[in-house]
Design brief:
Layout: E1 3-5, H1 13-24, E2 29-31, E3 38-42, H2 46-56, E4 65-67, H3 73-76, H4 84-91, E5 96-101, E6 116-120, H5 125-134, E7 138-142, H6 159-164, E8 167-170, E9 181-184, E10 191-194, H7 200-206, E11 214-215
Parallel strand pairs: 1-8, 2-8, 4-6, 5-9, 10-11
Antiparallel strand pairs: 2-3, 3-7, 4-7, 5-6, 9-10
Length: 217
């Protein structure tokens, strides 16, 4: 098991470089975020993305999400819907995954059957530094066996998963301990598909009336 112990608030350049190098080479990495621990790989390597599904035991028809830097958003989506810019400015980086119409370069299983993609910019200094250094988006999901509770520390992750990853980044317990909220921006009104670390009330406060957010019942 290849474990890298980090300071989540003060990223060390050598450790950022090591993690970014493994990502660039197509490795699968387990890492902390601001919400829960995730497992991911560069999104443009089909073999690497396939390993995530096998390690997690995830159904092949369940798409992954992208972790990106905010400045790269327009590369991966068709357009930013009216009313969404205010949400992006308010909640990114942060615990909000937003669903957009996917751009041409996004393929299944990151893009789903509807042609949409879930994207997030996590509020985690080390992870954002790795994203910048690697220069590629991460295809990612929570680092748990499908159907089990999402982990908030490395000790919560099954050893079988830890042993199959190319690198395990241990940054201690995550700050929020709850999965990200998922907001669908492809329909109006915008819809909360999963309420997590960002509450429905927080979203409603941030969005203008014409794009009022509702929870999917």
């Amino acid at each position: 098991m290849n474990i890298l112990y980090i300071n989540s608030k003060n990223p060390e350049k050598k450790k950022v470089g090591k993690a970014a190098g493994i990502i660039r080479k197509g490795g699968v990495v387990i890492f902390p975020t601001d919400t829960v621990y995730g497992i991911g790989a560069r999104a443009d390597r089909k073999v690497s993305v396939g390993r995530i599904f096998r390690i997690k035991g995830r159904a092949g028809n369940k798409p992954l999400i992208l972790f990106i830097n905010k400045r790269d958003l327009n590369i991966y989506i068709k357009c930013i819907p009216a009313g969404a810019k205010k949400i992006i400015a308010r909640f990114w980086p942060g615990a909000l995954t937003m669903v957009f119409k996917a751009g041409r370069g996004i393929r299944f299983p990151v893009k789903d059957r509807r042609g949409t993609v879930g994207i997030r910019m996590p509020d985690h200094r080390f992870l954002l530094a790795v994203l910048k250094k690697a220069g590629v988006p991460f295809a990612t999901t929570s680092a748990n066996i499908s159907g089990q509770k999402s982990p908030t520390s490395v000790k919560d992750i099954p050893e079988t998963m830890l042993n199959k990853a190319d690198l395990v980044i241990d940054g201690g317990r995550t700050s929020k301990g709850k999965a990200s909220t998922v907001l669908d921006l492809t329909a109006e009104p915008f819809r909360v598909l999963r309420e997590g670390a960002v509450s429905l009330k927080q979203l409603q406060k941030a969005v203008r009336a014409s794009c009022f957010v509702h929870r999917v019942s």
